[in-house]
Design a protein that fits this description.
alpha+beta; three-stranded antiparallel sheet; 10 helices; 11 strands; single chain; 340 residues
Length: 340
Amino acid sequence: MSGGRTDAGIDDLEALARAALALWGVTDHPPELIARRENVVFRVRTATGSPAVLRIHRLGYHDDATLRSELEWMAMLRTGGLDVPEPIPASDGALLLHVHTSALPDLRQVDMLSWLDGRPLGRSGAPLALDRGALQTVFFDLGAAASRLHTLADGWTRPPGFSRPAWDLDGLVGPDPFWGRFWKLDELTGDQRRLIERARDAAREDLAVYAASGGSYGLIHADLVRENVLVTGDGVQLIDFDDAGFGWRMFEIATMLCKNRHEPDYDVIERAVLDGYRRHRTLQDADFAALPLFMLLRCLTYLGWAQTRRTAEAAHPRTAAFVTDACEIAGAYLRDRPRS
C-alpha cells in the first residue's frame, strides 16, 4: 500500500534516477516521475528503448535480502505464466543496486522492472466504473490469478537466503504488528479504542483457532487492491509486490474484497473473486467461515499503516475513512461472533 512520502525534492530525485539509469546503460532517456509514495517510481527506457519502471525504495522499509527475494519471486511467477513485472538486471547483472548523489548521500536501493500496459482497475475511494458483467469478469480473473500465484508459490523451492515479512499471528495481532500498533492510533476516540482492542483480542483468539485447523498459509501478494491490478483485454496483471510476504490465503482474498465493501454490486464482486479463486484451488468450509475474520484483520492493518505514517503535523488523509471502516467491521464482528 502506498504512502510515506520522502522529504527529497523532485529535482534531487530525478538526479538520483539519472545516476541509477547509467548503471543500466541508459544515458539518453530522461526519467518521468509517475509516483512518489512508499517508493519513488519513474517511467524510464531501457538501453534497448523498451519502457520500464525504475523504483527508488523507501529508506529503511526493507533490507537488501528482502528486496532481492521479492525480485526472485516475481521472476519465478512470470516464468510460471503470471502477468507480473519482470526484473531487469543492470549492466553488471545485478537486480538490486545502491545509488546516491551529493544531494542525497544516503545509499538508496534501486531496481528496474518491465513496464505493463494494462489500465488500473480503479482508485480506492472512488466508485468502480464497471457494469455487473464487467465486474464479474474482472474479479473472476483476479481471483483466478491469486489462486495461480498461491499454487506457483507452493510448488517453488525458494532460493537460499529468501526473506519476506510475515502476515502471521504476531504480524497481524501480536504486540508489535508488521504494519504498526493499530490500537494506538491517535485519531481513535476512547470508545473506538476500546472497541478496536476488544476486536483485536477476539481476532487473535479466532485466528489461532483457524491456524490450528490448517488454513492455507504461504507466500501471498498481500496488497491486491485496485491500484495494483491492471486490466487488459486478456485478463489482469498484478503489480507492486512491495508488501508481499508469508500469510494466510484468506487474508489475500479479504484484501481483494475489503476496499470494495461499499460498492453497490459487492455481491457480484465477492462471488466472482471466490469463484475465480476456486478455479485453481479448493476452499474449505472453514475458509468461508473465516472470511469475516480476515476482513476485520485487513481493516485493522490499515489503522496500523496510518499510525506509522503520521508526520509531526498531521495524520494520513485517509485515516478518518480507515477508522470508520475498522470500527464498523469490528462492531459487526463482535456482535456476530459465534465464540463471543
